[in-house]
Amino acid sequence: MSLPVWSFKVQILPPSSPPINIVVEQTESPGELFVSWLPPPKESHNGIITGYHVKAVPQNVPTNSEDSDTRTLKVSQKSGKQETKISGLLKNTRYAVSISAFNGAGSGPFSLPVFQDTMEGAPEHAPTSVECTAISSSSLRVGWQPLAAPALASSLLGYTVLYATEDNVWQNQTSLHTELYLQALMKYTNYTVKVAGYSNYGPGPYSYPIVCATLQDVPDPPADIKVLVLSPTSLLVSWKPPEHPNGELLYYTVYIKPTSSNGPAQSERAEAASRTAALKPLNW
After folding, report:
1. What is the mean pLDDT of residues 22-47?
2. Do strands 223-231 and 276-279 pair parallel, antiparallel, or not at all (unpaired)?
3. CA angle, 49 as apex, 47 and 53 as ends, to 5°?
4. What Cα–Cα distance (Å) separates residue 44 from each residue in 50, 101, 106, 110?
5. Please, what is the Cα angle at 220 between 217 and 225, to 5 degrees?
6. For residue 62, what are the contacts with CB-CB under 8 A and spacing of at least 6?
7. Distance from the CA of 79 to the CA of which of 50, 89, 180, 208 falls in 20 to 30 A?
8. Residue 47 backbone zone (phi > 0: left; psi -120 to 50: alpha; other: beta)
9. DSSP 185-252
10. Cis peptide bond N-terminal to 39, omega within 30
């Protein structure tokens, strides 16, 4: 009489416990965390652990699936301490980090979260609504909207404003507020302006550059004035344009009178494109 043959199928289960001894630390790089842990207790492996899921979820920020970070890691060694760096996170943000182990049957439970802040960095966004208004022939007012908290990624110290004419290097001024008056500028000159927030880690991205101009002012005097005698009663006056016209020249006025006279000067108007004026007759 033959005995019956029994067959048994062993069911493989996912790990029944989470990893233990989880430690989460800042690194020197903004937006990065260093995570280390030990495998689940041996009796809960239910097979061979082949990897881990490391999940980092930002706290106190608007929910956005792109802000959560889940990494799947293969086991670097069969037992003992496991570790990884999670980069590309939001800066100056508190994260909840939890870990689960998986084997051939699937993933086990996630550990309780461990909280840690990423290091602050420069602001991640540029100020918006940057405006520039001419105040005088030598000053401009620059204003902008404050950086909102999610854009900071840092402890904001203030704002930096870069400005320059077309031919000059950038100049820099800072402001604790959302406006800045630029003084001692060149008259009737185009300036390119851009603004960034800054922290201890440095400035963030600059706003899109805008162009504004200081107002017109009276021109500098014409240069290299010469006088030629044409006749006993006429003179020819020539000149070069002002080095700094400080605006759109409309015309020139030539004044002349004898040095011995106390009366009003004789005047002659010349077109803006002119460089000479003939004064005649001169009746003194």
Report:
1. 92
2. unpaired
3. 135
4. 14, 10, 13, 13
5. 150
6. 150
7. 89
8. left
9. PPTT-EEEEEEEEEETTEE-PPPPPEEEEPPP-PPPPPEEEEEEEEETTEEEEEEE--S---S---EE
10. no
Residue type at 32 in one-letter notation: E
**In this structure, which amino acid lies at residue 110?**
F
Closest CA to 183 of 243, 118, 139, 117: 139
Of 2-6, 127-131, 270-274, the least confident: 2-6
Contact assessment for residue 94 and residue 2, using Cβ atoms and an 8 Å cutoff: no
> Tokens 């004898």 label which residue?
258
Q: Tell me the pLDDT tens digit for each residue of 137-158.
A: 999 999 999 987 655 556 788 9
The residue whose two tokens read 């950086």 is 147
Which residue's entry shows tokens 């062993």?
10
Task: Write out pLDDT tens, residues 212-271.
Answer: 999 999 999 999 999 998 888 888 999 999 999 999 999 999 988 887 777 788 888 999
120-129, 184-193, 204-213, range with the lowest pLDDT: 120-129
Site of tokens 């602001």:
123
And the tokens for 115? 């909280």
